[in-house]
Specification:
Order of helices and strands: EEEEHHEEHHHH
Mean pLDDT: 78
Helix content: 40-55%
Number of domains: 2
Strand content: 15-25%
Shape: globular
Strand order of the largest sheet: 1-6-5
């Protein structure tokens, strides 16, 4: 499972704020450090709405929801193969056709190579076949 952390005690990063330019900023004691633009642009646009925040003492952990996990696992599997751990994880999630189609719509925009959409659809078909066994 993917998780995002906020640690609420100095001198560690304590506040995550989103800027209007689509980047994020950590405020650290005495300095500011930005996330690379790729970080904010290569994650599903619905990620912030799909995080479930849990608190463990002074530690906040953002757990990625099902929608995000399906999309990220599909993306990772398309980059490898139907035999990858990512394809196995995606199959174990048993996404519905609607969930897969939503994930496909985002994933195919993440790689400009002409064969990438075919690979994404190949993984989706593999997952559908395993789900229907």
């Amino acid at each position: 499972m993917f998780s995002f952390l906020r640690i609420r005690f100095p001198p560690l990063w304590s506040t995550l704020s989103h800027e209007s330019r689509g980047t994020s900023r950590f405020r650290k004691t005495g300095s500011t450090q930005r996330w690379p633009r790729q970080w904010s642009q290569s994650l599903p646009p619905w990620l912030t709405e799909d995080l479930e925040w849990r608190r463990f003492g002074g530690l906040q952990v953002g757990l990625a929801g099902r929608r995000t996990l399906i999309a990220l696992k599909l993306f990772a599997a398309a980059d490898q193969s139907t035999r990858s751990v990512h394809a196995q994880d995606l199959a174990a999630l048993a996404p519905s056709d609607t969930e897969l189609e939503h994930a496909i719509a985002w994933v195919v925009t993440q790689d400009a190579s002409p064969e990438f959409p075919r690979l994404v659809h190949e993984i989706a078909e593999h997952v559908r076949a395993r789900r229907n066994r």
